[in-house]
Amino acid sequence: MGNIQPGTGKIGSGNHVGRVKYARAHYDFAVDGGAIGTVTLRGDSLPNGAILLDAFVDVTTAFTPTTTTTVALTVQSAGDLRAAALTNASPAVISTTGAKRLLVDTADADLVKTTAARSITLAVAAGAVTAGKCSVVVAYLELA
């Protein structure tokens, strides 16, 4: 890895290395279904060694669960974007429309770093989802 290159907004010698990048993936009940299990969201994946900086979900159709449905959003390990929680629990991340921040863990200073190329996944457990549509955006840094 090279030095910080003044005026370029990047670290290193490769094109776009050290710049914040974004991965965007989509879920749509009408396309992806809502059965219990893990759904790989359609869209971008994150490269090996990506350091996750921030993430948000934009819910355009509120998720309609059974009363016990839990949903988690993951990149590297279970629930690292959003831990499994009742879909209708507070804060209402996916049961109401709008943009919501994910990956905000003030109790733990460790960042998530991918150990292989990873897709964004949505895990549905304890009950099916019967409606819902969202986009997930993850900001990450690639150092190599």
Gyration radius, to the nearest Å?
A: 16 Å
Poorly predicted sequence stretches spanning 5 or more consecutive residues: 1-13
Coarse shape: elongated
Number of strands: 10
Helical percent range?
Answer: under 10%
How are the strands of the largest sheet arranged?
Answer: 7-6-9-4-3-10-5-8
H/I helix tally: 1
Give, in order, the helices and strands: EEEHEEEEEEE
Main beta-sheet annotation: 8 strands, antiparallel
Q: What oligomeric state is this?
A: single chain
Distance between the termini: 7 Å
Tell me what portion of residues adopts beta-strand conformation: over 45%
What is the overall pLDDT average?
Answer: 83
Instruction: Report the structural category.
Output: mainly beta
Which features does this protein show?
single chain; 144 residues; mainly beta; eight-stranded antiparallel sheet; two-stranded antiparallel sheet; 1 helix
